[in-house]
Amino acid sequence: MNRPVQGRVEVANLVIATLATHLNVVEQRVREDVHLVDDLGADSLDLVELVIQFEEMFSVEIPDDDAEQLTTVGDIVNMLTEKVSRKMVEEEEVVSPPVAEQPPEDPEEPQKVEDSADNEDEPEEGDEPDADENEGD
Which residues are tagged catalytic? Predict the structure, then answer.
């Protein structure tokens, strides 16, 4: 399907049109209270093909246990509406991207030496205290 389904009415219209085409019946016969096997003449192969077609059409997954519960057109519409709604909510949830972790420091890598201007209290390399300053008079 090229765009997301907007609601139950649109799901129902798509289901009815698909059932009418697949089962070769006029759309006016396909109402939500109509039984798929008894009223529309669907057989087990039709039901399997329709489930696959609806999975592809609505980009949802219909487990076998759910498919076995589908006896009327309304059952299909209700199940697909619920699955499509749930899928839309899941897609709308904003998940913050994971924070990239910094790799641990390699103990064998030399540590960064800080600039000596930042450490004014420490003597620079090569600076030795004057011997005269330490001697008393």
Answer: 43
